[in-house]
């Protein structure tokens, strides 16, 4: 099986006030944390979700985005409750839901706490998610293609010299450590999006990225990285010479390759495509 990572964000602060949804405006401008419920996508989220459901979804998005990796300890209950603007009792209900779904394990005692399950279990969660949401994948990829091809078109037209250097620096992460490979793909896409100078398109890109979770296998990801880098270089080359139509087509080819890779991963996992 071949897997890659398309999700990474560092949330700053966010609040849940009663039933309100945590939006990108509530987090640091340069990094957003997608808000995804414990089960189902934003398209199927019920308006009756409780604060604990939304808290569980926020933490789940931290796991899916790579902010919390397999085996990582979650922030303290006090820190999470303050960050989400909820009581610790409500937070505990959300954590209990995540534990029941298999995303985290919790230990008691003076040195206890909650940590993300190991990669094998998170992969199982991914397979379960895919079985339940396979019929939405084509819509997700169609939306992502439309958004990111437009981002690439605008980035080629509007990028500054400094923004081009940032895209080049993000691309250069491919040559660095294995740890950098984990975040590399998204760092590149984020740099291109910022060069487009469209906050709404950037938010749309991050939102749809939050709906597409892929499991992480570092060795396989490293093997896959060479293919992904080829697409990145094509996008970078077109942005460098400010060829907007070519940049859009290079991005379209990249997203199509991602779509095919996800379909292969689903086939390997036994999930059924719609």
Structural class: mainly alpha
Please give the order of strands in the largest beta sheet. Answer: 1-2
Number of helices: 10
Number of domains: 2
Number of strands: 2
Approximate helicity band: 55-70%
What does it look like?
The chain is an all-alpha fold. It has two domains: 24-117, Winged helix-like DNA-binding domain superfamily/Winged helix DNA-binding domain (Arc Repressor Mutant, subunit A); 128-269, Up-down Bundle (Four Helix Bundle (Hemerythrin (Met), subunit A)). The chain has ten helices and two strands, in the order αααββααααααα. A hairpin with a 5-residue loop joins strand 1 (104-107) and strand 2 (113-116). Helix 6 (161-172) packs antiparallel against helix 7 (178-195).
């Amino acid at each position: 099986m071949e897997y890659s990572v398309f999700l990474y964000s560092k949330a700053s602060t966010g609040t849940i006030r009663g039933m309100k949804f945590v939006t990108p405006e509530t987090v640091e401008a340069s990094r957003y944390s997608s808000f995804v419920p414990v089960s189902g996508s934003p398209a199927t989220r019920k308006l009756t979700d409780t604060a604990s459901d939304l808290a569980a979804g926020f933490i789940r998005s931290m796991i899916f985005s790579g902010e919390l990796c397999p085996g990582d300890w979650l922030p303290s209950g006090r820190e999470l409750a303050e960050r989400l603007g909820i009581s610790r009792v409500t937070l505990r209900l959300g954590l209990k839901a995540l534990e029941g779904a298999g995303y985290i394990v919790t230990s008691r005692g003076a040195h206890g706490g909650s940590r993300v399950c190991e990669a094998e279990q998170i992969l199982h969660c991914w397979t379960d998610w895919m079985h339940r949401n396979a019929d939405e994948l084509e819509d997700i990829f169609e939306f992502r293609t439309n958004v990111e091809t437009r981002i690439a078109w605008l980035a080629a037209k509007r990028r500054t010299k400094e923004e081009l250097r940032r895209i080049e620096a993000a691309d250069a992460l491919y040559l660095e450590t294995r740890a950098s490979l984990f975040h590399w793909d998204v760092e590149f896409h984020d740099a291109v999006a910022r060069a487009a100078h469209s906050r709404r398109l950037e938010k749309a890109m991050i939102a749809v990225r939050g709906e597409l979770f892929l499991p992480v296998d570092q060795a396989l990801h490293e093997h896959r990285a060479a293919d992904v880098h080829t697409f990145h270089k094509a996008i970078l080359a077109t942005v460098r010479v400010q060829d907007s139509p070519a940049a859009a087509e290079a991005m379209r080819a990249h997203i199509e390759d991602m779509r095919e890779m996800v379909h292969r991963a689903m086939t390997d996992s036994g999930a059924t495509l719609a």
